[in-house]
Amino acid sequence: MLEYLMLYNLGLKGYLLISKLRIVAVLNLVAITSLIAAGKGAVGAWDVAFLLLTGSMASMGSSALNHYYDKDIDVLMNRTSKRPIPSGVMKARNALIYGLGMSIASVIIALLTLNAMTAFFIALGIFFYVLIYTVWLKRRHTSNIVIGGFAGSCASYAGWAAATGGIDPLGFLVGLIVFLWTPTHFWCLSIVGREEYANARVPMLPVLVGDKRAAMYILVNTIVLVPYSIVIAFLGLGVVYLIASILAGIMLLHYNIRLVRNTSKDVAWHTYKLSSPYLAIIFIALMLDSIYNYPLPLITLS
Ligand code: HEM
Ligand SMILES: CC(C)=CCC/C(C)=C/CC/C(C)=C/COP(=O)(O)OP(=O)(O)O
């Protein structure tokens, strides 16, 4: 914490803020737990260290590029208007150089210290977040985060590949949890910021269909996400994961049903804030099963 304050005071405040460190933390959690799950609890400390390093650099770099590209609309939304570039704390050019440098370096270091497939999935995550989501879809189509959400799956795939050198069917299915989770995660927040997105002319779902229908879409998405996350337990995961996916799923469904019944910004905000803990619980449980080996004796793909 002291280092953070020192960096903060050293005028690096802008770099820390455009790195979206809370998001980096959960992305790293997804990547590391996927690494440990794929490695069945036996992974090298260097693999963990270099995955943390390269995953953090990639997420921080791509977030900086997102800040750079979105500087014109960030100034239009209250939630983002105080960010380093729109508020003048940081030059846009510096964010661009930082973002490109961190993103490119993350892929090269992953290639040199981990393996080619890990570097590929880190690059794919950057590609999906920066080019597919931020540049292409975000301002053009309401499917923006449905497709852009695959960037988050790449964090899991990078972890899985760091342990095994690639992706097997189970690894692919585990990574899809993040893809299915993202609409629930973000559409809740977009209900909170609907007017701001409309003002910035960003076609987020609630801007097009209204809060009530968006809440219904979120519930439909969660009704796909929760059973999916439970069913894949029987394809080679474990008992701790199964219990966690059921309990966390019930909690998420409860909040989503509540949001349909009471589509207020307050309920939407609380449902959004719950979404990251839901994902963290699922992936921590996945890791615990691989360390303590409580396998489910049912159908397995591998
Ligand atoms: C393209 C897909 C995604 C979109 C559009 C999206 C959107 C957002 C937005 C707009 C915020 C608020 C940021 C802020 O105001 O500072 C946010 C917060 C967050 N996102 Fe996402 N997100 C996406 C994917 C992910 C993924 C893959 C993860 C992690 C695996 C993630 C984890 C988080 C976390 C931890 C927060 C902070 C939550 C809190 O403050 O409690 N997001 N997301
Ligand atoms: C492997 C790898 C590097 C994966 C990268 C995945 C990644 C960085 C996901 C983060 C997605 C995210 C928080 C998007 C918000 O953008 P936004 O523009 O909608 O949010 P904003 O309005 O708050 O800027």
Automatic annotation (TrEMBL):
Pathway: Porphyrin-containing compound metabolism; heme O biosynthesis; heme O from protoheme: step 1/1. Its EC number is 2.5.1.141. Keywords: Cell membrane, Heme biosynthesis, Membrane, Transferase, Transmembrane, Transmembrane helix. This is Protoheme IX farnesyltransferase. It holds the Pfam family UbiA. GO terms for cellular component: plasma membrane. Converts heme B (protoheme IX) to heme O by substitution of the vinyl group on carbon 2 of heme B porphyrin ring with a hydroxyethyl farnesyl side group. One of its GO terms (molecular function) is protoheme IX farnesyltransferase activity. GO terms for biological process: heme O biosynthetic process. In the C-terminal section; belongs to the UbiA prenyltransferase family. Protoheme IX farnesyltransferase subfamily. Carbon 2 of the heme B porphyrin ring is defined according to the Fischer nomenclature. It catalyses: heme b + (2E,6E)-farnesyl diphosphate + H2O = Fe(II)-heme o + diphosphate. The chain crosses the membrane at residues 21-42, 48-69, 95-114, 120-137, 144-163, 169-193, 214-233, 239-257, 278-296. It comes from Candidatus Nitrosocaldus cavascurensis. It is a multi-pass membrane protein. It is found in: Cell membrane. InterPro entries: Protohaem_IX_farnesylTrfase, UbiA_prenyltransferase, UbiA_prenylTrfase_CS, UbiA_sf.
